[in-house]
Design brief:
Blueprint (H helix, E strand, L loop, with lengths): L2 H27 L3 E4 L5 E5 L5 E6 L8 H31 L3 H7 L9
Antiparallel strand pairs: 1-2, 2-3
Helix pairs in contact: 1-2, 2-3
Protein name: DNA-binding protein YbaB
InterPro entries: YbaB-like_sf, YbaB/EbfC
GO molecular function, one term: DNA binding
Length: about 120
Amino acid sequence: MEPAQWLADYRGRLERAADGARQARESLEQAGATARSPRGEVTVSVNAAGVLEDVALTPFARKLEADALAALIVTTARVAQRLAGERMADVMAGYLGDGPALTQLTRHLSPEVVR
């Protein structure tokens, strides 16, 4: 293969990799999740990393005892984090494929999220 052709092929691969990385980043930015408690007292939103972004309480939440409300918030946050983890794993699987890199990225996720 001619050096010029090899260089052109290499640049093409780099451009495709950069495009894939951009698409993965954009998808991950949208991979956060929101969960609502079963009776709707609590709504929790997290980003793609599972970091808490918002907690909303309805007037029904005021009727709960403090310990029950705290437990409901934690439980609802865990659901949102699991959903965000699933979305993140899907995005990264599409970018990385199944293999050691995906395993390394998803090793901290709950077992039901990991493929």
